[in-house]
Specification:
Strand order of the largest sheet: 5-6-1-7-8
Number of domains: 3
Helix content: 25-40%
Largest sheet: 5 strands, mixed
Distance between the termini: 47 Å
CATH architecture of the largest domain: 2-Layer Sandwich
Mean pLDDT: 89
Low-confidence stretches: none
Length: about 400
């Protein structure tokens, strides 16, 4: 099988954007943080900072000790999204972007007339050159090419920064033997432990395992998929279905009290409902999470008639809030999730509709917030949190600047 896919992985993305925007940061250790507090963690680190051991997840206080000259930059997610859009456009000018995997990764299927080794190398070099010219020299990327997306993703991680790695069909599976289990996409700590329980401790052992064993490890057909991925076979994936929409936020030290926490979670819910309506869904479930000092956590949820009405969901949120445990611990983080989603075009109208239909009100509020800024109209419970819970980029969600922008 020929090379069929390339994956483009942008190196130390948030930190690289900061270095592109501010030339004074180039060549210097940089860490991007959610807020200026030693108790939080770095969400990105430049390669200059990584040389000192600073990485994603390093506590800010520890990063300062590990790298005394480190430059801490508070995250500006709107800028990262704008640069992401520029990068997609730059790659699109070279080859069609088939899938945006995350804010810093994208995959492209190679056309049948562009799968020879020399052609793929030339394409990868063209992509790098185009990015430097159209977006900026600090936005370097590592590119992996392979017979399928799984192996292309693996290849993109094998040489950083600014790498280019090709995995050929005839090299499989031996080419993978030098990797660790967790170097493979989809194998985290829990899956690694499960593999160990089945006697699989190396990638070589994993590659040599038969389908029956991998079915047992993965608990079903996904084990066969892994067997096929490791051998370069192209795996068809059905279109993913959105199952939930939510937001979470770590509270600033001065906001770690119940009054502020409720205002912030109210604001998060209003943001989630605007997204819900734009995406064309209704929700029939609401989940609330409160994390307290000392790492304790409380969660609860409630189900209800399908709705996308903000005021009704705020009422339900307060029902959940009133169930919370009563103690003196400070609230450290909050999260709210709408689940049991149903597409509007698949929604069955109720025989017993609410006496008040606020659909027109929600439409007008969304329209005005899109036109004049998202805090133009809002329900009053979020008033004390308008400067809190700014837009954040999650691994599987790139915010829409129109509905979530600052």
């Amino acid at each position: 099988m020929p090379l069929r896919c390339i994956v483009i992985d942008f190196n130390s993305y948030f930190a690289s954007v900061e270095q592109q925007v501010n030339p004074k940061l180039r060549g210097k250790p940089v860490a991007v943080v959610p807020m200026m507090a030693d108790s939080t963690c770095c969400i990105a680190a430049s390669y200059e900072a990584k040389k000192y051991g600073v990485k994603t997840g390093t506590m800010v206080g520890d990063a300062k000790k590990m790298c005394p000259g480190i430059h801490l930059i508070e995250a500006e997610h709107g800028i990262y999204i704008k640069y992401h859009e520029k990068l997609v456009a730059a790659v699109e000018s070279c080859i069609h972007v088939q899938e945006v995997m995350s804010i810093d990764e994208m995959a492209c299927e190679l056309p049948t007339n562009l799968r020879e080794t020399e052609q793929v190398v030339a394409l990868a070099k063209k992509i790098k050159k185009t990015i430097a010219e159209m977006v900026g020299t600090e936005l370097r990327c590592s590119i992996g090419a392979a017979p399928n997306k799984f192996l292309a993703k693996t290849a993109s991680d094998m040489q950083k920064p600014d790498g280019l790695v090709l995995i050929q069909q005839e090299e499989l599976p031996e080419r993978l033997y030098g990797l660790g289990l967790r170097d493979l996409c989809g194998i985290g700590k829990n899956m690694e432990e499960r593999l160990h329980r089945h006697g699989i401790f190396t990638v070589k052992t994993l590659c040599l395992a038969d389908k029956d064993l991998l079915r047992k490890v993965w608990g079903g057909y996904e084990g066969e998929r892994m067997y096929e991925r490791l051998r370069g076979e192209a795996i068809w994936h059905p279109a993913s279905k959105k199952t939930c929409i939510g937001h979470s936020h770590v509270l600033a030290p001065q906001k770690r009290n119940e009054t502020s926490a409720l205002a912030i979670v109210d604001r998060l819910l209003q943001k989630a409902l605007m997204r819900l309506r734009k995406d064309g869904y209704l929700a029939a479930g609401l989940h609330l999470t409160l994390k307290y000092e000392g790492r304790s956590k409380w969660t609860d949820d409630i189900t209800f008639q399908e709705t996308q009405d903000t005021l009704e969901c705020i009422r339900l949120l307060h029902t959940l809030w009133n169930r919370r445990p009563k103690h003196d611990k400070n609230v450290m983080a909050v999260g709210v999730t709408l689940f049991n989603l149903v597409a509007e075009n698949n929604h069955t109208l109720s025989l017993f509709p609410r006496s008040v239909d606020r659909k027109k009100l929600n439409v007008v509020m969304d329209k005005l917030n899109k036109q004049f800024g998202k805090d133009t109209l809002y329900y009053g419970g979020a008033f004390d949190a308008l400067q809190d819970a700014p837009m954040r980029i999650a691994f599987n969600h790139i915010p829409d600047l129109e509905t979530e922008g600052e």
